[in-house]
Structures are given as structure tokens and as C-alpha cells.
Amino acid sequence: MRKAHPLHLRLLWLLRDEGPLSRAELADRLQIPRPRLLAELERLVALGYVAEAGLAKSRGGRRSTLVELDPRLRFAAVDMGASSIDVEVVNGRLEPVAAYAEQADIRSGPKATLHRVNELLHKARADGAYERLDAIGVGVPGPVSFRDGVPVSPPIMPGWDRFPVRELLTREHGCPAVVDNDVNIMAIGERHGGVAHSVDDFLFVKIGTGIGCGIFLGGEVYRGSDGCAGDIGHIQAEPHGPVCSCGNVGCLEALFSGAALAKDATAAARSGTSPALAERLAARGRVTALDVAEGAGEGDVTCIQLIREGGRRLGGVLAGLVSFANPSMIVIGGGLAQLGHILLAEIRSVVYRRSLPLATGNLPVVLSELGPRAGVAGAAVLASDVAFLEAS
């Protein structure tokens, strides 16, 4: 059952997601008496969250005054990947007013990476994107204690364990901050403004450097008791498979992820079984998952087989999750979503074949609509949520 949220939170969410509304519309949508609404609006205006937005269109009588989120509200959204940083500053409607993206190595450690994040945010301020930030949302590519705002033993983030990310950003920018793992923020972004818009129960599967799953149940992100729910990359997919970075054997991530696919593609190129990959290896000295996608598009049989094999393994894990959680949608995102409909068809085939008919009778398996923007979009939603909570 969905939680009962406080009035001020529902009011601010409504203005964020719908735009300017009249007092009458707000009272009607929130199903509260007009005097109570007016008292709440007065309080939020005094706090700097809400402002008047001119007159509504005439309906033949007296024109009502519209209410909107204060135009000065600004949230920062930061999506840190294994090899990139994406930063956006957005207004109260979560519309970008400044955006920066660059390559970065998360293994360079928290001090260097967060220093660069701070530099980008200060650049946005110098460029006129904001006078002050009201909140910051951050995603990192590893397990996070959502309660404490710190990464916890992240496998691909050496030096980040228990680093006070939230505390550092709050101190630097003088506003609340929230930290989550990258897959959760992508799922949040996709639900707010993507293909899963308003879907209450769905799985968002990110296939990139690693594999993870964002879980929405009853309209809320399910993080688990310690914040590490959805770490499906370390479910065993092959009992006698390769050793994974986590130390176990046959993990899904060791068999099908960006690194695993690049490794298999390199072997196929060197053995000569894939002319398309051999050509790319000779030209550039290495091959990547993108090369596999391009090769498959050209009809290269080995590239198609590599994608299908990956889809089969991922589909096997997802079939178990579908039988367990009974979601109403599965969304595939992350860098390897570029493998496209060959991958999607294989995942669908395995999930539909191996899960209960009742669970798959009306189960779309689709590609992310937001693509690479899903992470910053979700981080912006989280930032607005933590700012709005401060208005209580």
C-alpha cells in the first residue's frame, strides 16, 4: 500500500509535475477544504517554495490567480558513472537550465571526483544558472546506505567505502543532499518522465559496466533493509562460469556486462570467427560493446550470437524475478541497451517462456525512453523530494 504523504509534499509535487494551477484546482485535486489550502499556501510562500503566477484564463467569470513553484528554486542532479560525470541544474519543474557531461574515472577516488563535481556546480553558478541551490541529488555506481548518504563497499569504486558524500556536498553548497545508487536514480527518472510514467510496479534493469536493477513496488523505490536491493549482477547465472570481480563464480555480471561483452568480442575478433570485429580490432587495437552492436546491425553472425547469449542469461535471471515480484513492466537501460531489439527479443523470449503465464500475460519488456538522461532526471526528482521534505 502506498504511504500517506503530508499535505505540503503532495501540493509541491502537484505544482512540480503539473505546472501552475489555480487555488480552486489545487483544493479539488488534493481534496481538502479551501481555508486549509490557503493557510498551507501562505506558509509555503513565506518559506520561498511557492509564488503567484498571474491570472488564469477567463471562463466567463472572475479570473482566478494561478499558483506555481517559486521560479528561483534550483536543484542540482549529479549522475556519476564508472567512466563519466553528468551534472544538470534544474528549476522547480525539473527543467534543465544548465548541463555538463564529461569523461571521468570513478577509480580516481572520492576526493578528486567530488572536487570535479563541485567545480562543475560552481561553473553553473558563474554561468548564471542559479544564485543558490535548494538541494542536490547524486547517483553513484555502487551500493549505497541511503539512510547515511555513503557508498558501502562498492566493488568498482576503490577508496569510496563509507566516504561521507552527502555530508561533503551539503557543507560545500549549504543545502540538503541525497545519495542513491545509479540504478535507483535511473528507475526514478524513468518513472517520472519516461516509459514507466506512473507505473507503480516495475523493474528497471541497467546493463553497463555492471548490471543492477531498480525496483518500484507500490509506487515507491524498494531499497531493502540495508540499501542494496536489486544487485542482480551477482546472482549466479552459470555454476561453472568465470570468476567475478566480487570473488564468486558465474555471476551474471561476469558473463554479460560491458566488460564481459568486450572480452568475448575481443576473443571472437582474434579467432577470426567475426569478420566485423576482426576488422575493428585491426583498425583500432580494441573492440567494445558498441562494436558488437554495429557488427550485429551489419548482419555479423557472431555479433548476433553474442547479444543473444547475453540476452538469454539476463532473461533467465529476470524470469525468476518476474515470478517472485510480478512487476507490470520491465525497462532495459544503461549503455548496453544500445544492443537494441536483438537483445530485447531474446530477453522477452526467455522471460515469457520461463515465467508463469499469469505473470507475463500483460508484461511489456521495453527499452528506456530517457536513455542516458535517466540518471540525472532521477537525481533531480530525488533532490526536489528532499528539498520539499524540508518545508515541513
Describe, in plain words, how this protein is organized in 3D.
With 392 residues, the chain is of the alpha/beta class. The protein is 43% helix and 18% strand. It has 3 domains: 7-69, Arc Repressor Mutant, subunit A (Orthogonal Bundle), CATH 1.10.10; 75-189 and 373-389, Nucleotidyltransferase, domain 5 (2-Layer Sandwich); 197-368, Nucleotidyltransferase, domain 5 (2-Layer Sandwich). It contains 14 helices and 15 strands. The chain has a 5-stranded mixed sheet. Helix 6 (182-193) crosses helix 14 (374-389) and helix 10 (289-297) packs across helix 11. The chain is globular.
Overall pLDDT confidence: 93
Supply the CATH class of the largest domain. Alpha Beta
Total number of helical segments? 14
Helix and strand string, N-terminal first?
HEHHEEEEEHEEEHEHEEEHHHHHEHHEH
Sum up the overall morphology in one term. globular
Tell me the fraction of residues in β-strands, as a range: 15-25%
Could you list the spans in which at least 5 consecutive residues all have pLDDT below 50? none
CATH hierarchy: architecture of the largest domain: 2-Layer Sandwich
Biggest pleated sheet:
5 strands, mixed
Q: How widely separated are the two ends?
A: 23 Å
Number of strands: 15
Helical residue percent? 40-55%
Keywords: Kinase, Transferase
Family: Belongs to the ROK (NagC/XylR) family.
GO molecular function: kinase activity
Protein name: ROK family protein (Putative glucokinase)
